[in-house]
Specification:
Blueprint (H helix, E strand, L loop, with lengths): L6 H25 L15 H21 L11 H6 L11
């Protein structure tokens, strides 16, 4: 890239990248300053891994909507799915 992009622009792009990452971390830390959420501060740097994973998930969803438009990729969510199933009704009201 150094042969294609002029050195001044190259350094400016690096500075912009570092600045934008610093802003992302700062905003993440600011967002979890409230009482009851401060334990999340240690997880703020992991947002850099979350964003690419979210992009991959969006590409997967886009591919699925093109290839299988009526397919719904469902995920079980613990107790919520178990509570949604109706309980069997006994034919004898005394039971």
């Amino acid at each position: 890239m150094k042969g294609i992009i002029p050195p001044g622009l190259y350094l400016s792009m690096i500075a912009l990248f570092v600045f934008s990452e610093a802003i992302t971390i700062t905003l993440g830390l600011f967002a979890v300053q409230q009482r009851g959420r401060r334990f999340l501060m240690v997880w703020v740097p992991t947002m850099h891994a979350y964003f690419p994973l979210a992009a991959i998930a969006s590409y997967k969803a886009f591919f699925e909507i093109l290839t299988k438009p009526f397919y719904w990729d469902k995920t079980r969510h613990g107790l919520h799915d178990e509570a949604a199933e109706p309980e069997p009704v006994s034919p004898d009201p005394m039971i």
